[in-house]
Design goal:
mainly alpha; 6% strand; elongated
């Protein structure tokens, strides 16, 4: 369950990105088409060379291709999420999944030491290794006991029936008139006991291997959590940087469009700035999706996925 939930989260955030990116490409196409329309009017009145109209037409065609590609990506991401949500894909093949959330970035409070403690205490794979080691400890103690002499106490108690026929014998045995009992001890001293010693040595070796696996797993979890925190922090900084880049791209395009309207710029520059703005918007969306996915990965690394999703599993 802890493995599947992050996969669903990642697929969902990728789907939101794909859906938003389609909108970005549609807006980009609309900007290119508007510029083309404006350029046609300028060519007609003789204030612009026909070459610039052709440049705008080329960019419209390129934006259409980008939109087609983004729609294909959206369809692929829908299928990825459907594959995780159902075991009957054919029944879902025509279903359109529309995300109800938007991509946001809430800055997380990352405490490496606390995350390490959670990972050591809550990771199911590590808990399983701890349980395996405890079982092996029991095996070692048992095999160690087999090396020593054994003193067993033996006791028995019987109710006897002594008579000439079965009925009377059965009744007499129930009456308790002829009890008998015995008690004793048996001392077993192993001579050589090579097989027991071999089993003890083998169980100690298996225990040592279990200890090494546990230590290696603990270190792997610590490294995994450290990497997950660094990735989340980096992705959050990417969100801030790409947001600023998008704002600057919007401002630059707006200024250049005004210059073009006054004859102080060219459509080539405006088209390039339109493309820069589209790339900046897509980069911001990608950073937002990656940040949210990195938070899901961090929860998985800590073993806190169920806790953070307020889920509990009851085994019957």
């Amino acid at each position: 369950v802890i493995d599947v939930i992050p996969l669903v989260e990642r697929a969902y955030y990728d789907l939101i990105f794909a859906a938003k990116n389609v909108q970005v490409q549609q807006l980009s196409l609309a900007l290119a088409e508007q510029l083309l329309e404006d350029n046609k009017k300028r060519v007609e009145v003789g204030t612009m060379a026909p070459l610039e109209e052709k440049q705008a037409e080329a960019q419209v065609a390129a934006r259409k291709a980008d939109l087609i590609s983004s729609l294909q990506t959206l369809g692929t991401q829908q299928n990825t999420l459907k594959n995780l949500l159902t075991d009957d894909f054919m029944a879902w093949s025509e279903v359109q999944i529309h995300p109800t959330e938007t991509l946001i970035a809430v800055e997380g409070i990352f405490d490496k030491q606390a995350s390490w403690r959670k990972g050591i205490a809550m990771r199911p794979d590590l808990l399983q290794l701890m349980e395996d080691l405890e079982k092996q400890n029991i095996e070692v103690r048992y095999n160690h006991n087999q090396l020593f002499p054994a003193l067993d106490l033996i006791g028995s108690f019987r109710q006897n029936g002594l008579d000439s026929n079965f009925r009377d014998t059965f009744g007499e045995s129930l009456s308790g008139r002829n009890p008998s009992y015995s008690i004793g001890a048996r001392l077993t001293v192993p001579l050589g006991n090579r097989s027991a010693r071999n089993r003890f040595r083998a169980s100690k070796a298996v225990k040592q291997q279990a200890i090494l696996r546990l230590k290696q797993s603990e270190q792997n979890i610590i490294v995994e959590i450290d990497n997950a925190i660094k990735t989340a922090q980096s992705n959050y900084r990417r969100v801030e940087a790409t947001r600023e880049a998008r704002k600057y791209a919007e401002a630059a395009l707006d200024a250049e469009e005004k210059k073009l309207a006054n004859g102080a710029s060219t459509s080539f520059v405006v088209l390039q700035l339109q493309k820069d703005l589209t790339d900046a918007r897509s980069s911001e969306l990608r950073a937002l999706a990656d940040y949210n996915k990195s938070l899901a990965d961090l929860a998985k690394s800590e073993g806190t996925t169920l806790e953070k999703k307020k889920l509990s599993l009851d085994l019957e």
